[in-house]
Amino acid sequence: MHGAIRAAGYSLMILFVSCGVGAQDLAGGDKTSFSATPQEARAIAKEAYLYGFPMVEMYKTLYTQAVDDQSQNFKAPLNQIGNTATAFTAHDTAFVTPNADTPYSFVWMDLRNEPLVLTLPPIDEKRYYSVQLIDAYTQNFAYLGTRSTGNNGGRFLIAGPDWQGQPPDDVDRLLRSETNIAYALYRTQLFDANDLSKVKDIQAGYTVEKLSDYMKQQAPPPAPNIDWPKPAPTMSDTPDLFRYLNFMLTFAPPQDAEKPLLARFKEIGIEAGKPFIVTDLSPDQRQALEDGIADAKAEFATLKKARIDTHQVTSGDFFGSRDHLKGNYLYRYAGANMGIFGNSSEEAAYIGYFADKEGQPLDASKRSYTLRFDKDALPPAEGFWSLTMYDGKNKLLVANPLNRYLINSRMLPELSMDTDGGLTLYVQRDAPAEALQSNWLPAPDGPFFGVLRLYLPKPQVADGQWKMPLLTSGSRQE
């Protein structure tokens, strides 16, 4: 995620955010408004759950990375950059399906009263890096870096929806978020363990400044303080989600195309800044909301089994801009559910391995697996490719004796090639024979899934000329 934008016309923003952005507003005061019948409420709750789940999942990450400074996953306060100087391991739990190839840098952006200037340093042309800019809906509204702006660096202005002004002359690009809270997620390619010091040097060159600081001008009046609601264990799977959705909507001015949808949501108490108190609901109302959430989850389960697991749809369908998603909230939900903050298809392709060649769910406690790429049929990527292992229960990296969480294209010189020039990977719980261990991707003692990432995928990925190989299962060796 990359982005930057500048400042003027602050009054509109201050007016907007002063209308209740606090946890207290959501927990007390007026009773929850609810005008729908139980039957109507069930249908609305299904829509609202699919719509709101990504925003609430985003809030979880925002809170742990930028608000709760006691969290082990805290990175930096709002409008400051935090760098991760090592690749992700099984000990990192901030968000699911982390990428262990590219150490991250993180900026949670509060754009309510002025834009931010993001500065990128020039880096080696052979190294991939990117800044993914994500709004509060989890939509990727822009990119900076190798593909989009090159490796020569630059200055970029990220602005919120209400800012009115002109960028400084020395800023390369103005990028605008639909929401006043946004996320800049930086990825810097790590070649190997000996490369960490170079990655740290690059990260040290990433800077973030408020526009007024950048221009050495007086800052605008500060936006109101935010009373952040503390995340709750049930916030993603029960009607509690709608309380946090009301909070997140305060940072998201209504889009014209969504105003009819938001009007329906009001019938079950979902409205920016309004309280949503589950205990205010009657048993029938609460049951209707729970049934609607169950309906949404069932619709996703059907999509996953019928179209995702069979590769009829890909990650490229789930991540991208508002224009790319075209109002498909089920797809946006799928992306947030399976791997929030995924890249847009032009930046990276993600291929999920959830089942074997016979369509059976992957479980390394029962079976061992191989994945074979034919000669001259390795994943086609201009950047690099990587196959990463995840635990099927928690979607995190898998602890293992090798501390190996992935196999990627940088490792090819160390891998053992087949006699015909192909490449076979061994995906299993227990170590294979010693001669094969260079090609071993350790799996957990139970369900798992893999994600094959292609950075800057070549055209034959999108047009279907390159066919992904499937996992072949065999008996597990005791």
Q: Nearest-angstrom radius of gyration?
A: 23 Å
Number of helices: 11
* Number of beta strands: 17
Low-confidence stretches: 1-21
The end-to-end distance, rounded to whole angstroms, is 45 Å
User: In terms of structural class, how would the helical and strand content be classed?
Assistant: alpha+beta
Largest sheet properties: 5 strands, antiparallel
- Determine the mean pLDDT: 91
Strand order of the largest sheet: 1-2-8-4-5
User: How much of the polypeptide forms β-strand, as a percent range?
Assistant: 15-25%
Number of structural units classed as domains: 2
Overall shape: globular
Give a nutshell description of this structure.
The chain has 478 residues and is α+β, with helices and mostly antiparallel strands. The chain contains eleven helices and 17 strands. α3 (38-67) crosses α6 and α3 (38-67) crosses α8.
Descriptive overview:
The protein is of the alpha+beta class and 478 residues long. It folds into 2 domains: 1-345, no CATH class; 347-475, Jelly Rolls, CATH 2.60.120.1600. The protein has 11 helices and 17 strands. The strands form 4 sheets. Strands 1-2-8-4-5 form a 5-stranded antiparallel β-sheet, sandwiched between helices. Strand 4 (129-135) and strand 5 (140-145) form a beta hairpin. Helix 3 crosses helix 8 (283-308) and helix 3 crosses helix 10. The chain is globular and about 70 Å long.
